Amino acid sequence: xxxxxxxxxxxxxxxxxxxxxxxxxGPDAAVLAGGTDLFPNMKRRQQTPxxxxxxxxxxxxxxxxxxxxxxxxxGALTRLSAxxxxxxxxxxxxxxxxxxxxxxxxxxxxxxxxxxxLCLDTRCSYYDQSxxxxxxxxxxxxxxxxxxxxxxxxxxxWAVSSSDTAPVLCALGAEVSLVSGAGERxxxxxxxxxxxxxxxxxxxxxxxxxxxxVPAPAPGERSAYVKLRRRGSFDFPVLGVAVWVRLAAGxxxxxxxxxxGGAGSRPHEARAAAELLVGRVLDDDRVIDQxxxxxxxxxxxxxxxxxTLSWRKTVAREYAARALRAVVAAVPAPRG
Length: 336
Ligand SMILES: Cc1cc2nc3c(=O)[nH]c(=O)nc-3n(C[C@H](O)[C@H](O)[C@H](O)COP(=O)(O)OP(=O)(O)OC[C@H]3O[C@@H](n4cnc5c(N)ncnc54)[C@H](O)[C@@H]3O)c2cc1C
Ligand code: SF4
Hints:
It is a single chain. The radius of gyration is 20 Å and the shape is globular. Strand 11 and strand 12 form a beta hairpin. It has 13 helices and twelve strands. The chain is of the alpha+beta class and about 325 residues long. Bound molecules: flavin-adenine dinucleotide and iron/sulfur cluster.
């Protein structure tokens, strides 16, 4: 059985108190939300904080306001199951509700939060192993070692962003508020991520992700999310395709954003595919196939997650096409 190491536990009751603790402790502290990622990582000694700063007592991080006319604001502690089961939210932002519903299992979604999902550690088959396993191979660059076993000549880590909601929130044009002792800053979710398996977040160690803001859907907007994984009951994505489109009255695409998750250290934008869709009606199989090929080209997986690399490359195009067809079938955002 893997046990948690010893650590100091702080339970601040306000954001200011939590921010002051993080500023004081620096990188030796870790923020705790639902703990469904942090605690397993600590058991495997992938993350070894001396102090854990628990957010659960901070009421300001719990609130959520779901208003299709003015937008969605989710406190960072909003549980994934609350997002999954909120009908009003699912009506206006279906891809977000779908992505939340596809994370892990019901018990994990009852504990896991939207803030934790966005700040999820990157994953790799050489890293998500017990401490003994990692010690046996001499560790790796991401923790305690100096070589990358996926690309031994590489100077960077290629661990994978495996959050289901991250590509969706990028496609929806969402923003996050980050709070520290120095104040609050609001950035696009796309700017929260960096293309590096180790320094995968631009969030500073003293910052707390406080809220997620999703713009109100305009008339004609639709969104969809499609996920590839080994077991439909609980696995992480090895590919996630999030599509957002705005359709004109005649059905032609006015604007589109497409992001791919599970295939790089950050969600990657398939900009060329999105541009191809503009002005087209998505009932043409040739357009869908061409755009799917461009999306699959962005999804360049390494051999460091589940399923064989060649099979994943082969099915990426099919999953991208499914995401494009799903967005056509998606219920349009309510008008006005
Ligand atoms: C068996 C299993 C299957 C899983 N499958 C999936 C899956 O399919 N898809 C998926 O996306 N995830 C999956 N997960 C991962 C995890 O359950 C979810 O991502 C969950 O949403 C994490 O949220 P949490 O609140 O539990 O995060 P925590 O574990 O509390 O934190 C995760 C990370 O984020 C940081 N953090 C948390 N909240 C904040 C904040 N407000 N500000 C700054 N930093 C913060 C923590 O320091 C930590 O590094 C799985 C986990 C398990 C154990
Ligand atoms: S990609 Fe390389 S450095 Fe990063 S976790 Fe995997 S083996 Fe380690």
